[in-house]
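Dear Dr. H.,

I hope your travels went smoothly. While you were away I took the liberty of generating a structure for the chain from your last submission, since the lab meeting agenda had it listed for discussion. I wanted you to have the full record in hand beforehand rather than looking at slides cold. The sequence, exactly as received, is reproduced here:
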Amino acid sequence: MPPNSSTSSSRRRRGLVALVLFGASLAALFAASAWRLEAHGLARTREDRIAHAVASMRGVEAEAIVLSDSVTTSAAYPARPAPGVYMMLTNGYLRLLGQYLLFRRFVEHNHARRMFLFILPAELIADIPDDTGGGLARYTYVDSVFTRPDERRILDAAGAHPKREIESRFERMLKTWYPDHQAKPFSLDLFRVDRVAEPLDPDPTPRKRVMLTAQSRYTLERFQESCAEHRVECTIVQVPTRPGVERFDMAELHTRFPGLRFVDMHDFVHYPASAFPDGVHPDPVMGRRYLRRIQAHVAPLFAESDSAWDGSAVAFHDPASLALFSADSFHDPESWGVWSSEASLSMRFRLARDLPPGVLEVAVRAPQVTPEPMQIACLLDGQPMASAASEGMETRTLSLALPAGLPAGSHRLEVRIPRTVNPRALGISPDSRELGPGIVSIAYQPRAGQSPGHSQ
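The corresponding predicted structure, in token form, is as follows:
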């Protein structure tokens, strides 16, 4: 039986409606992708987001901007910047030239009083890599990020013409839908960095005259010109490296580029090879100490601690606890609390107000590795207050009786064990860290009838 005309017409209309809906959906997807590319940039890496955000800034008056390779990034990214300081922390694949292009994007429409670039010595004698990952590294972090015609001309002038063809706008729009796992590209704001006077401990290793590549020389010249043009005081900092790594004479570099300031962190401190687990990047303990050296000898680029404890319970699995009880030797927090790296864990804290008579309760554990108990002692402002034996890494609560209470102001709480433990060296676990006492929690219990906010 032949189909009637009304049935055929209805099918054609449904087909047309489906095509229109499909076309509208496709157009909407393209429009959304184009908007995401303009509004958010690519979404492959945190460096993508930083570069795009910097290009979108207008009228910013910064006290300082901070650029770096991954050595300083790994230490500084979790820290809170000081007011007016903008962290633009990336990695070494940008090399000097990529860092300059990032700096240039900022000063086009904004102003900074100072700029700091923290780099490994090797970054001074390394060009943008063509061979690493078949050229994928430079493509990901430089070529496909700095794509404006003026930026391409700078790459060409430096002898760093892209070796791969830059993908089409269509492909770039598709990549804006990559999963974005970096909620905070500039800083995690987890802890603050105190500026504490410490004795200088310079590295005695001789410094060499750096033999710059043509690309490095070109980039430093461009930095010098742009810093003068935009009235920015620009500082390039040679970061700490493990013993045996070649270091360069930064004072000699200043004679060649007098418009730039050069600083060598090795003039202030040196660290053992054990502080660099992978041979390049600092472990968390050394990283925090490195930031304190930056704060003391380079510039106060990080927010200093203004947090005061009120006596309420503090759990050390929360990174925010490190802002209340700060120590140089903390490892990263874990689900139960945090280990220290030295046999004596010394924590600085400030009380917001007087605490009434009561008990300071400190929950601790020792890295137990032998059948014998390990003795744990607790001191407050240098005075022994309590001790206990810990078995099998159990958590022990030490009670520090304070019949006169504790006055407002700065204090120091110490937890000590006889020695540190290295689980890998003892064949216990793959953990190669030196473990000192662990801290689980701290709380203050007022005497019956008192309250934590009571003043004497």
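Two observations you may find useful: The chain has two domains: 46-298, 314-446. Residues 5-40 form the longest helix (36 residues).

With kind regards,
E. W.
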